[in-house]
Structure formats: C-alpha cells, structure tokens
Fold these 4 entries.
Entry 1:
Amino acid sequence: KNRKQIYVGESKNLKERIGNHFAGRKTALTKQVCSQYNIPLGEEMREWMTKNCKFAYLEVSDFDMCHLLEALAIAILRKKNAKLLNTVKQKQDLPAERKTELYLLLPKFF
C-alpha cells in the first residue's frame, strides 16, 4: 500500500496521547479528522482510527530538538504536498520544557 502521513505531533506521554486518538476522544488530531472527513467523535471516530490509521514514532530526549524535528517534518511533508491535518502552532502554544516523543500518523487507506 502507498501510505501517506497526515499528522505529525509530539507528546510527553505517547501511550496516553495515542490512546486518546484511538479512543475517539477530543484531541487536536481528532478535531481535524472530524472537520476534514466528517467523522463524529466517540465510537465512529474510534472505529475509523482503528481501521484506517497506524502510528510510527521516534523518541527524542532533547526538548528543543523534538520541536525542531516536528517543525522540520511538517515543513518537508508540506513541501511534498502532503495533506497534513496539523494546524500551524504559535509560540504561545508550545508546551513547557519536558521530554517529548515525535510521532507520525500513517493512514492505512492511502
């Protein structure tokens, strides 16, 4: 299958963050999926995420490097015309310094 990335993110607690996505809870990603694919939160979102998505991740210990890699991955993918669901982050949206992990959402259906 030809897979394309549709979301790049970071998380302090990757297991919890991905669990929230796959549970269909309201997250930055599921809000965008709701908007772009017209899939409601809850059970339908959980089923859609389980059926159509997989995650790949890279652990990055350095806080600044994680932000840099996230921004770089988004910029490169957008230059390649990837249809990312990411919204543009503002400086005030960035979290306080902490260990974070970078991840990509790879839909199964592309």
Note: The mean pLDDT is 79.
Entry 2:
Amino acid sequence: SLSLLHTPVCEFTLVAMSESGFGERLKELREMSQVSGREFARITDMSGTLPGMMERGFRGGPWVKRLVAIKSATGCSLDWLLTGDGPAPSPAQVLSAVSIALQQQPGVAA
C-alpha cells in the first residue's frame, strides 16, 4: 500500500537508493552476471524491463522484495547495493550466484 512508502525504513531506502548510485551498481551486477537482461529480470523476480528502468532511476515499489531478490540472485550485500559501502562482489561471485539462481528457476534442468 502507499502508506508503506512513508515508513522510516522505506523513506531511508528510497533516499539511499536515489543518492548513492544504486542504478549504477545494479547495472554493474547485471553486466557481471553475463546473462541476458530478460534472464536477469527473471532471476530477480521482476518484469523484463524493470531492472533497466531501475538502472535509469525508476523508484516504483515494492522495494524490499526487489532488493532481496537482487541480493539473492547476485550474491551481493544489501549494504553495497543500497549505499556502496563495503566490498563490491567480484565477477566470479556474481557468476556463481547467478548460475545457482538460474538452476533454481522452474523448467531449467540442473
């Protein structure tokens, strides 16, 4: 609901994401993943165009679900994703996490 956007956590998240280069880090993760944009959207539980829109500054909700899906699919930390603090994931870490995420998708043979 729209009231959730005005909770302190959501307000912090939206401000942190807009001021911290979130879109650039998301693009970096997508590029390191070496999968198509459509596959990246699928493993992060988003529609096909949403990751690209988020890279360019789109701030639609529900953010918590999307952030957790991005973190899970790429192996990055939420601190780094939101604020840039902490170590960035290596391309090898992202590739490994994405490989696992792709194997867990319905209809994909292990």
Note: The helical segments are 8-19, 22-33, 37-43, 50-55, 63-74, 78-83, 91-103.
Entry 3:
Amino acid sequence: WFQLDSYLAEFGEDAVLVLLLEDLKKDPNRELNRIFRFLGACPYDLSAGDLHAHNVNREIPQSDYAVEEIPEEILEFILEDARRFSRYLQRDLSEVWPSLAAGATVASDS
C-alpha cells in the first residue's frame, strides 16, 4: 500500500490506475478495456482470439508457507496493508487473496 500511496500523493488518483493481476487473468478483455478507457483509447473486443497464451506449460511454484506459520507481527503488518488497499479499492480482497482472510477479515476497519 505505501508504494501506491506514494504514487497517489505525487500524481493524484486521476493519474493512477490500479489493476490486480488476478483480475487480468480472470477477465483479460474487461481489464484491458479498463486500461484503454483510462488512457483515453477506444475500447476493443479482445475476445475474438486476439489473446494468445504464453508459457502455458510453465508452472508457478506455490509457497509452502501457511498463514499460521507467519509470525504474528508480520502477518498483522500484511493484513493492515491489505485492509488499507481494500478500502482504497472499495473491494473485499479476501475474494482475490483467500490466504489473507485466514487471519482477519480484510475489508474490515478493525
């Protein structure tokens, strides 16, 4: 959050578009059109096969760490950062990052 906070302070909210990789992977057409609108470009229908998968056989290693194994002070720092980010986006990020919801409700103000 603090990196985003710095950009917002420097450039203003109108000049910063926040995207989540998870959303881009889930619905690339919608997210790319959000980018086009933000840049002032015309929307474009990318669902007609213009997007091609790359590295489709490449597996991304998953972390062996469970949320319970992260020291409490680090987990609380991460969760507080996620709460602030969630409030900024006005979105419950536990739907995107379920592991963050294990320790607390990400969108809460507590």
Note: The longest helix spans residues 72-89.
Entry 4:
Amino acid sequence: AQSSLESVLQTKTKKTNEISISIPLSGAIDFKLLASMGFSKIRHLLLSKGQITGIHNIPDGITHMVCNDNLLETIDGLPDTIEYLDVTSNMIQSIDLSQRHYQLKLANLI
C-alpha cells in the first residue's frame, strides 16, 4: 500500500488540500509520507474500497477522513483536528477517542 500511495502522491500538487485515492490499496498505510513529501496543506483524506488493514500517523490538520469498505482493524494517531471520520464497513473492533480533545462532530464507525 505504501508504494502505491507514494506513486499517487507524486501526481498531486503539494498545494492541494485533499488527497483522494481512487485505486484500491492493501495493507497498512503510514501517512508520515505526506509530511516527508511536502504535503502540508492536506485537510481531507479520501481512500477508496480496498484491503487497507491499518492507518497510522494521520497528520495534524486533517479534518475529514473517509476509508470505507476495507479491512481496517486499527487507526492510530488520529489528529486533534479530526471533525469527520467515516470508516464504515471495516473490521474495527474498538477505537479509543477518549484520550485527546478531538473536534469530532461526526463519526461513522459501523
């Protein structure tokens, strides 16, 4: 998944505020890649149906994240700025949103 994500990011402008991945990804994704590639203005992450099993290190500043119809078991490192989280039709058993001061307004988890 990581190399496919990197390939898609190479086609995007660094000034964009939305990353929409329309190809199916599989495995775990580490979004530290966004910062290392110079994407500092991203607010929305939209991931298509696939076989993503984990999402890690979502950057600060992300307000919307959608990752439906995957095999997600874990989401680590949600930023405090997250307002909209849609991870329906995945395999998440639990998600702990109690430890930080999230700005979450809507979460679709089932």
Note: The radius of gyration is 13 Å.
